[in-house]
Write a structure and sequence with these properties.
The protein is an alpha/beta fold and about 180 residues long. The protein contains 4 helices and 10 strands. It has helices at about 35-40, 50-60, 95-100, 115-125; strands at about 5-10, 15, 45-50, 70-75, 85-90, 110-115, 130-135, 145, 160-165, 170-175. The strands form 2 sheets. An 8-stranded mixed sheet has the order 5-4-3-6-1-7-10-9. A two-stranded antiparallel ribbon has the order 2-8. The chain is globular and about 40 Å long. The relative contact order is 0.26.
């Protein structure tokens, strides 16, 4: 079985983008990758929501994941393919992820790369195995929530590790139990 990981950066108040959809508030120390390369080396597939992918397309010709299988969950079949490795998929994201998880561990982890609506819908179904959250020391007050849900997201998480990085950024790793624990 392949592990699915929602790996993301958010503000202290739980937003992954500001009210204009911007991410300029994300900071980091120069020449420190905050463990990204180590994580990325373990990834075989990136699962993206349509808005996140469209935001990447607006950044120009640079596409950050040309060497990974990228599946964009979208109903828009007119989106440009940023790399040969990108495929547009109109299926229910939970069906896509469930099928990917059946693969071999040798195929690498599945990175839920965003956005909040996609991650929220997959979290609701219990298909996300782990959350890796990088908390930025900033309050946005409004924007795109890290997990957006229509049904509710109540679930206890198990802290696996925490680490303080330069610039006041804190990394939290949580395992998502498959069953609800009422003792938490």
């Amino acid at each position: 079985m392949r592990k699915s990981i929602y790996y993301f950066t958010m503000s202290l108040d739980g937003y992954i983008a500001d009210s204009q959809g911007g991410i300029d508030w994300m900071t980091g120390a120069p020449n420190i990758d905050y463990g990204f390369q180590e994580f990325y080396d373990e990834v075989g597939t990136v699962l993206l929501g349509s808005k996140t992918y469209e935001h990447m397309l607006k950044m120009g010709d640079f596409f950050p994941y040309p060497d990974r299988d990228v599946i964009v969950c979208t109903s828009n079949d007119k989106l440009k393919l940023a790399a040969e490795s990108v495929q547009l998929n109109h299926e229910d994201p939970s069906k896509i992820l469930a099928r990917l998880q059946l693969g071999s561990e040798d195929e690498g982890h599945i990175w839920i790369g965003g956005g909040g609506k996609l991650a929220g819908s997959l979290f609701e179904t219990g298909l996300i195995d782990e959350l890796r959250v990088f908390v930025q020391p900033v309050i946005l007050g409004d924007g795109t929530k890290a997990l957006t849900s229509n049904k509710g997201l109540a679930r206890a998480l198990e802290l696996q590790s925490s680490k303080e990085w330069p610039m006041g950024i804190v990394e939290l790793r949580y395992k998502v139990p498959k069953r609800w624990r009422s003792d938490v």
